[in-house]
Structures are given as C-alpha cells and as structure tokens.
Amino acid sequence: MLLIQTAAATLIFAYFNNDSVRTVAAQIGAFKVQSGLLGAFVAGLIGGGIVPEIARVFTGKTKRLDAENLIRIGSTAFTYGVVGIQVDLLYNYQAVWFGQGNDAVTLLQKTAVDMLLFSPLLSIPTATYLLGWWQSSFSRRYWAKALTWKFFRDECLGAMPLCWSYWIPILLLTYALPLPLQFPFAILAESAWSIVFVLLVVDRGAAPEVAVP
Questions:
Q1: pLDDT class of 12 with cuts at 50, 70, 90
Q2: How much is the average pLDDT of 92-120?
C-alpha cells in the first residue's frame, strides 16, 4: 500500500512539474470527457474486474477459464463497471458542490464526503451486495440475510478500515488533479491495488472488497 501511495504521489508531482506529463495527461482527460458514463463503466469493469482476473491467471489462482469462472469474471466486471459509474458521478457532483480548487479545505471536504458517506453507504455496499448475490446463485433468500444490520456492519462497514488506510492518501492526491483526470487516476490506483490484493491476500473467489471510492 505504501509503495502504491508513494508511486501515486510521484506521479502527481510529475504532473505538476513536467510539461510532457501534463501533455499526455491532457489527452487522457480529453478522452475521458468524450467517453462519458460509458467510458466510466468500461474503465471500472477493467480496473476492478478484468485486471485482478489477469493477476489470478498469472499467479495460478485461476487455473482454467471454464463456464463457472467466466460467469464469475463477468459478474465481477459488471459490478465494478456499475461502481465506476457511481464514482464518476460522485467526482462530477463534488466539483459542483465544492468547486474545482485544489486547496487544502476543498481536498479535505471532498475526501470526507467520499470516505464517510459515499464509500460506506453506496460504493462498497453496491459491490458487496451484487457480488454476494452472484455467489448465492442469485437466490432470493440471499436478501433476507443481506438486508440486515449485522450483514451491513460485518461485510460493508467491516471493509472501511482497510479502505480508509489505502484510499484517503490516494483521494487527497486524486482531488488535487483537474476534474477530467480524477477518474482515470483513481482507476489506475484501483488497478494497482487489485493486483496487490490478489498477490498478497487469500483469494476467496471474489473481487477485491475495496472498490473504487
């Protein structure tokens, strides 16, 4: 986590101090704006769903791409595509609510909304519930267990300490960037985290619990 955060800080430093990096970043930002919510869905699908699956193949945790694994990959990718849309909308609304400055107050306000409201109440529950529903073979009985305080506390709020420790520094860096670059940078951080998660954490057959905040 510290290595990724350090690399992210280095990239932000390069953006603000290197003309070539800013030129490339501007092209990425323009593409993001043109791609809209569809681009956010595809980016979330790749960053949170496809990248960790590639890591699982290379680490031997996915030994064959049979029908069951393909369904799992598709369900995971779709889930993180949905979360990608949520994240993109959040970034755009935050720009309206708090402006597009990168002063300390603005960065702290956006990060607080992201980490204290959006992640525990929307993005992480979305990923947790959708992935859990798939793992239950889309059983209606799943929701009787899922829509309880105990499940929400253990499965959703239980993921927040890890989420905070990784994403708070990343988000402070993310919100320092111009709006068109915030989502691409967050997806890059999510992809890096997904790979580390697969390499270091025992794989239970699902995608990383800490979705893009």
A1: very high
A2: 96
Please tell me the pTM assigned to this model: 0.88
- Nearest CA to 54 out of 194, 204, 187, 193 is that of 194
What count of Cα atoms within 13 Å lies in the side-chain half-sphere of residue 174? 29
Count of CB atoms situated within 10 Å of the CB of 109: 16
Instruction: Return the closest-CA partner of residue 177 out of 115, 112, 120, 110.
Output: 110
Q: What is the pLDDT of residues 72-96, one digit of tens each?
A: 888 888 999 999 999 999 999 999 9
Instruction: List the domain boundaries for the chain.
Output: 2-200
Q: Between the CA of residue 187 and those of 61, 125, 139, 165, what are the distances in Å?
A: 23, 19, 31, 17
Task: Compute the distance between CA of residue 47 and CA of residue 63 in angstroms, rounded to an integer.
Answer: 21
